[in-house]
Structures are given as structure tokens and as C-alpha cells.
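Structure, all two chains, one model.
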Amino acid sequence: MRKLLEFLVRKRHWFLFVLLEIISFTLIYRDHAYQRNVMFSSANVITGYVSSVSGYITSYLNLREINRELLERNGQLEMELLKLQDQLEVMQADTVLFTGFVADSIEHFPYSFIMADVVNNSVTHLSNYITINKGRKEGVEPDMGVVSERGVVGIVSTVSDHFSVVIPLLNPKFRLSCKVLGSSYFGTLGWNGRDARFANLDELPRHVEFEKGDTIVTSGYSAVFPAGIVVGNVVDYEKQHDDNFYSLKVELATNFQALNNVRIIKNYRQAEQKHLEQEAKKND
Amino acid sequence: MINNILRGLIYFVVLVLIQVLILNNIHFLRIATPFLYLYFILKMAVGTSRMNVIFLSFLIGLVIDMFSNTSGMHAAACTFVGFIRQWLIFFFMGKDLPEDMSPSYRTFGYGGFLRYTSAFVVIHHIALFAIESLTFFDSLFLAIRIGASAITTILLISAIEALNIGVQKGGD
């Protein structure tokens, strides 16, 4: 008995080793679940604070580029506004006032934006994450969509009081339903784990017509993103092994390596849609 | 003794900050990221009890995980290298070393320290990237990533160690 005890005491580092490895792997496997533990992620108070200080400093480095992008975007939006105003005027001139349209204009647009700064970002890992400086106190909740000035960024996964962790397109866990602009067939966009500039759009039916350079947009089927948000451009395509589908190589519109400001999309009807979908599945 | 603990603490904080604020943003040619924080585990005195080595390795891995959103991966890989560290030292340098000796160019010799560092870094990187690819497997790319990151880590550690020696000589 004594010898056994002595043996155990002498080999106690083995137990510590096994215990710590079990803790680590528990963390890794829990992390596979979509919802993550806030304490061990970059959304906790200390890591969030350190990251936001460094993010604050580095955010000055790209100001010129960001400014140019905002001006461009501003110009585009102004053009769009003018076009729409123009169309509206033509329509108003064309139509006799018809009360049937009134209900439409009262219809509330169900999305709103929350602006946030990126405080931590990675593009080199296989599973990348982005931390942003808005959290539950500002109205951010899990499952909200995140976009940049250029296009889709990702989806909110974990939220603490002042920070949130976003799963970006550059993470195999995140798959996004997308379509080629102008067609109505959709496929699934996922990252191949190699290059932060490209992703693949799979399962697009063979008979969909498109060309290199065509724009890929969100399909709007997920309740996370509204339809028609830019994701990227087609740069290459090939037949998938089962020959009935195309696999498209998509150059992502968002530049993940220089990401500074993002907008979180709040969908007032997301809960309602999800609830309804779950009800429908339950009845199966 | 107090001196050693204080130095360890400073190493810990400085290396973690360098790693998460600077090195985690480096991805040379889109594949290689140096993991300099291993220097902390490498430099612990030879006589440090294995319990302490394993626990401190786990701790630094966990802190790095918190900052880089890789919960558990660095912790698992670091615990493993912390566990086998003593065998590596015995294997490369033999068993009769003074307890308070800390691995460096001067104590292990240039060749000895480089061999020890290389074996240590390569084992850590294989463990780390293998754990990471549990979610996503791509063998060729995995091998390239391990190789490239290991080379940058080893180069960086040997450079820092050379500077360290310079500082110590100047201070003595």
C-alpha cells in the first residue's frame, strides 16, 4: 500500500498532465458548439480591454484608406438615391393615386444597423474569429448578421456586456446561403481554409447561367441577412465531382485583412421567423 | 528565488503581449505565424519541478487561447510540451545538470540549445496544428503550415536568445 502511494506521489505530474489535457480538450470540444463560453474567449473583460486598446491605436493606421472607401460608398449611395427619386417621380406622374399602394409605404423596414469597431481579428487560423466593441448593452445578440462597407463579414456568436465575437466567412463553421445576382437559384458559400481572399460557392445547379465577374449576393433565406447584400465576385468555376452542380471560386468583397468598422444588422422579425420555422419542424 | 519568480512573471506578461498584439497578426506568405511565447516554457530552469512546468505551460497556453479565440488548442499543445520537456533536456544534454541552470546558448552550447529548441518547437507545432485540424483536414497544407511556422518560430527564438545573451554579458 505504502509503495503504491509512493509510486502515485512520484508520478503525480502524470495526473496533472492528464487532468490539464482533459480540461483543454473539453474547452476545444465545447468550442465546437456554436455558442461559446464568454469567459474563455476574447469577449471577456480583460482580453476585450487589451484588444480594444491595441485596436484603438492601430485604427489610426488605415484612416486614409477607410476615408476613401467611405467616400466611394457615399457616392454610390447618393447615385442610387437619385435614381430612386427619379423613378419615384416618374411613377407618381404616371399613376393615378391608388389607395392600394398606401399600405406598402407604411410597411416598416424590419432591419436596423448598429455600428461597431473591430478590436481583434485573425485571418490565418483555420477557424478565424473577429471581436467587436459592442455587446449586449448596445443591443447586440447572438445570430445577428455583420457587414462591412463592402459586403458580408459574418455572424455574431458570443456576446458579453460590451464585446461580441463574430464568426466571419473565414471559418468553416459558417456557411452562407448565396445566389448569383439576377438568378434565383442558391448555393452554399464556405471557406476552404487557405486564402483569406477567396471562398467557394458549392451546390449551385448546373443550369444556372453566370459568367466570371458576376456578383454573388446573399439569398435572404436565413433571417440573418437581408437579400441582396454583396458577398463577392466569381473569379473561377468548375464542375463538382457529381457533375450536377457547379463549384464557384468567389473573391470576397470584404477585405478581412484590413477590417476596421462593421455594422451589425438587427432584424426585428428574426425571432418570429425562427419561432415559426421551429414550430413547423416540430409538426413533422 | 524572488528574483527568479519576478523574472518569470515579467517574461510571461511581456511574451504574451508580444504574441497577441504583434505576432498573431503576422502571417508570412499567408502560412507562417511565429509562436514566440514558447520561449517562456523553454527558458524555465532545469530543476523546476515537473508539476510547475506542466501547470505554467498550461496557463500560458490558456491565456494565449483567450486572446486568439482558439479556446483550448494552445493550452493542450503547451501542456503536452511542458510534460515532455524534461525528457527532451535529458535526451539532448544528459541527466547531470545543475538544478538552477536555465537553458541558453551559454549553458547548453549553441548546437545543444538549437537542437533542444528545434525539437521542442516542432513537437509543439505538430501538436497545435493537428489539434486545430480536427475541425478541418487538409494534409499537404497542414504539413506546409507546420514547417513554415516552426522555421519562423525557431529563427525568432534563436535571435531573441542571442540578444538576451548580449544583454546579460553587458550587465554582468
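DSSP finds six helices and no strands in chain B.
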